[in-house]
């Protein structure tokens, strides 16, 4: 589809949805991560990157949604059209965050390459957040059209989803849901005026709720359990569940999942001779490289090296006291 490579103002055909955004830019293969709570919210992450060939005017995107976009590279030379009205963009520097109101039949005329990672945020997702918070619904998000913002929180959260977009088969639904809810909540509070109403007893989970949530996570080490499922099992909204789970455990549901995966991996590494690829799959990782990356980030060494160090330590502990004094010499 080459519909965007035209000069002049925006074309008349309109598209919608997260895939419609990619289509309007002729980026049909752009990576997308849809939240598992999409049936309710429709939120999704997408990374959009163009080269010199992707210039010209896009088809308008008409949707009851917003796009929260982190600029991964500076992009100053383009025009915005909102309902056909020309808007000159400002401050689209690398690291800036822009809010695009897709309800305004938004189109763009690009003359420079661009690269951004975005949260597609339907208004019904904002309505769901307001409902969970016992707060009034939001009409929209306060922002100046065409002006990018300095927002370190949104930048951090959007950067955090990039590894998952690059390896979508390794991304757990729990992680994607958690990140989307966190970013949507921040945006709703910072730009939508969301103020949570009074809630009762959400500091920690009840014992049965904590036990049930941990059981479900442990039974789904591959990460296929969702925030919505965990919250429903505990009789809470997603927002209340995530806050109460952190209050009870000191960590997020996804961090708890990662801890369980690594604990099981260490047990198997220490007490079996199984191949790393088999251990990875049994512990919920998508493959050996996924295990290695997460293990090294949290433990500090690769799983193979950890196994060798653990076996050497175990062998030394099993020696007589006089033998332990003999230094270990590695063969050449």
Q: What would you note in describing this structure?
A:
The chain has 332 residues and is of the alpha+beta class. It folds into three domains: 17-191, Jelly Rolls; 199-250; 265-319, Homeodomain-like (Arc Repressor Mutant, subunit A, Orthogonal Bundle), CATH 1.10.10.60. The protein contains twelve helices and nine strands. The protein has helices at residues 17-24, 123-132, 152-166, 173-191, 207-218, 227-233, 238-249, 253-271, 276-282, 288-299, 303-318, 321-324, and strands at 32-34, 44-49, 56-57, 65-71, 78-82, 85-87, 97-101, 106-110, 115-122. It has a five-stranded antiparallel beta sheet with strand order 1-2-9-4-7, sandwiched between helices. Helix 3 (152-166) runs antiparallel to helix 4, helix 6 packs across helix 7 (238-249) and helix 9 (276-282) packs across helix 10 (288-299). The radius of gyration is 24 Å and the shape is globular. The N and C termini lie far apart (60 Å).
């Amino acid at each position: 589809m080459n519909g965007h490579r035209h000069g002049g103002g925006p074309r008349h055909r309109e598209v919608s949805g997260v895939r419609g955004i990619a289509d309007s830019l002729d980026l049909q293969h752009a990576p997308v991560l849809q939240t598992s709570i999409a049936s309710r919210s429709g939120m999704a992450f997408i990374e959009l990157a163009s080269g010199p060939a992707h210039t010209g005017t896009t088809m308008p995107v008409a949707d009851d949604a917003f796009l929260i976009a982190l600029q991964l590279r500076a992009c100053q030379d383009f025009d915005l059209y909102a309902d056909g009205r020309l808007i000159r963009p400002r401050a689209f520097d690398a690291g800036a965050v822009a809010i695009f109101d897709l309800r305004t039949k938004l189109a763009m005329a690009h003359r420079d390459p661009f690269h951004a990672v975005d949260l597609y945020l339907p208004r019904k997702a904002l309505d769901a957040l307001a409902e969970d918070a016992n707060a009034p619904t939001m009409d929209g998000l306060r922002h100046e059209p065409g002006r990018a913002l300095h927002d370190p929180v949104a930048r951090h959260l959007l950067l955090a989803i990039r590894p998952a977009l690059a390896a979508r088969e390794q991304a757990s639904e729990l992680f994607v849901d958690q990140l989307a809810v966190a970013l949507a909540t921040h945006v709703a509070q910072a730009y939508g005026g969301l103020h949570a109403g009074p809630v009762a007893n959400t500091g920690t989970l009840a014992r049965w709720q904590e036990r049930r949530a941990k059981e479900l996570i442990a039974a789904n080490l591959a990460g296929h359990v969702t925030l919505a499922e965990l919250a429903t099992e505990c009789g809470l909204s997603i927002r209340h569940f995530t806050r109460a789970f952190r209050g009870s455990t000191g960590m997020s549901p996804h961090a708890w999942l990662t801890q369980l995966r690594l604990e099981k991996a260490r047990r198997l590494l220490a007490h079996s001779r199984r191949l790393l690829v088999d251990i990875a799959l049994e512990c919920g990782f998508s493959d050996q490289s996924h295990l290695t990356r997460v293990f090294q980030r949290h433990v500090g060494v690769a799983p193979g090296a950890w196994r060798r160090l653990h076996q050497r330590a175990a062998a030394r502990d099993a020696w007589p006291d006089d033998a332990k004094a003999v230094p270990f010499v590695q063969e050449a």
